[in-house]
Structure formats: structure tokens, C-alpha cells
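Q: Convert this sequence to C-alpha cells.
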Amino acid sequence: MGLVHPPPIVKNIKINVIDNLYFNKLASQKCGLNIEIKKGYKLCDMKPAWPHIFEDYLGEYEFVGWCDIDLVLGNINSFFSESLKAKYDLLTVTTGYISGALTIIRNTRTMRLLYQKAKGWEQIFQDDRHYAFDELLRLKEKKFESFSDMIKRLNNTSFRALFMNVAYESRPDLITWDRGIVSVKNEEYIFFHYVVAKQSMFFVIPTWTIIPNKYYVNKWGFYRENERPLNFISLFFNVGYIKQITQCLKRKRKTIIKMIRKNDFSGFVKTIIKQF
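A:
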């Protein structure tokens, strides 16, 4: 397939679609390594390298970065303000580590190559296993360090990084999205990341073709301003929701069966608890 340019969805978004072969070739050229990504999740390790790998597509943008797709974005510019961008070269939305969900860096060659200062990055990029290099290493290797660890080690040397506590990533009681503003109990956040919420098979994601001006998200999913709040019972009175729950159950079934076969009672219980 190579590189494909589908028509834009909205004016300020451009989409470039690439396949695995195209990415591996480009990443290998830019990083000077033999990159062979086989599983999509391994791409997360390479997020800090994306601005370097795709530098030929970034034009004259002052800042570039990476983000996840399971986000409800709020008013980004109110957090990544002009004054902060003038002062810092890297802005991230969590305090303990660089966020793989949303981080931006100044679009300079120094910052695009910054990931190469992390110890062991070459070995991590060429290993099939997922290390969580972009955040904090899950596979502990004494000779390796994550992108986050390197940033903390070198911060305020040749660059300045700012860690902010502005992301909402817990399973929500109630989130409001009102004309581009994400808030919880009147406190504004840069985004709601439903990474935890979607672990429940009962958390439903809408298939809206037109995004309403205002909507809510609770622990069961999304609903419009003029709709009743979702609850466990109401999920089963909507055909679309039932289909989503059924599909999710099929995906989780393999995991549950493996736990039962391994006598992983603790893991089985934790998985069931997460659903509610």
C-alpha cells in the first residue's frame, strides 16, 4: 500500500495512511537500524522517535508530538499555551512520566533526535517485545532507560521539559464535554483518556455521525445532553449497545479461558471486577 492520502475529515486534520512495510523501511532509514515491527503495539515504544521518523512530513510546525486515539480532547491550547511553548521545549500532561497519550516537543532537530540519548534505545527498538519505552519501562533492564527517565536525567540541560497534571484517565463517575471543554466537577482537563474505562465490556462507545455540542460520559459510556444517564440496566435496552457488549465479550473470552486453564484465580477475579 505504501503511503495513501484519504480525503480530510475536517479542515485542520490531514491523514496519511501507511502500511507496516512502509513504516519499517522509513524507520530503519531514519534510525539507522533494522526496524521490523510485527505487532502494532510495539509502535508505542517508538512514539518518541515518530517526530524524527516522520520529519519530512512535518513542515514548518513549531511543535509536533504524539497522542493516543482513545481520547476525548478538551481545549488543548488553554493548557499548551503560547507562553508555555515559548518557555519549554517539551510539554506533557502527566507528572510522573512522559505521557504516551499526549506529549508535544519543539520541532527542532535536537528535540526530534532526543530519544537517542536514552540508554539502550537501539536494542529496545529492535526487540519484538513491548517495553513501554515511551513512558516507564515494564521490562526491567539495568542497562536500559525509558524516554521518561532520560528526560528527567537531562532536563534543564540542552532543553526544558514541563510535566503537568492535567489529564483525566480514571473510570469516570461523570465527565462533561461542553463545546470543546472537558470537565469533571467543574475542574477542566486537557482530555479524558478512556484507557481504563474501556477495559469494561459494559463501557459503550457511541457511533455518532454528528458530535453533539454537549454530552456526558459516566462509568457505562457516552450519552447526549437530552438522554437519560446510562446505567447497567439501560445498556440492555439498546440494540447497538448489546452488539458492542457481545463483541467485547468475545474478545475477553480468550483471556478468561487462559486464566481458568492456568488456575489464575486472582487474575480471573480482577478481570471480572474491572467489568463493573
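The CA atoms of residues 3 and 18 lie 5 Å apart.
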